[in-house]
Every structure is written in C-alpha cells, then in structure tokens.
Amino acid sequence: MAKVVTISINTTDVRGKKQVTNVSHINLEAENDKLREFAQMLIVLTTDSYVGLTKITKESVI
38 vs 16, 30, 35, 61, 62, CA distance in Å? Predict the structure, then answer.
C-alpha cells in the first residue's frame, strides 16, 4: 500500500485574496515543524503572506 503526503499552503495575496498551493510527494518521515518551516520559507520568495499549512496523507487500499 503506497502512501502519498501532500501539503496545502494557505496564503493571501497583496489584495487579500485567499490562495492555496499544493506540494505533493513529500517525504513520509518529514516532521510537521520542518514542513511548516519549508512552507514559510517558500512563501517568503513571493509577495504573498503565509496563513497556514495542512498536511494530507493518502493511502491506497486496493
């Protein structure tokens, strides 16, 4: 059974519009604190403001 971890980074742009950016195939062993730090550092490269992060784990049950 394969597991896939995706993070959804919630941001707002300079006009206050909410946005979501998804990053998939995250390391299964990555700690939540490190994922949050990664998301915040990624958003610093843009003009958006960091709001929050959601970690989504999917598992195939074929």
Answer: 22, 10, 5, 29, 32
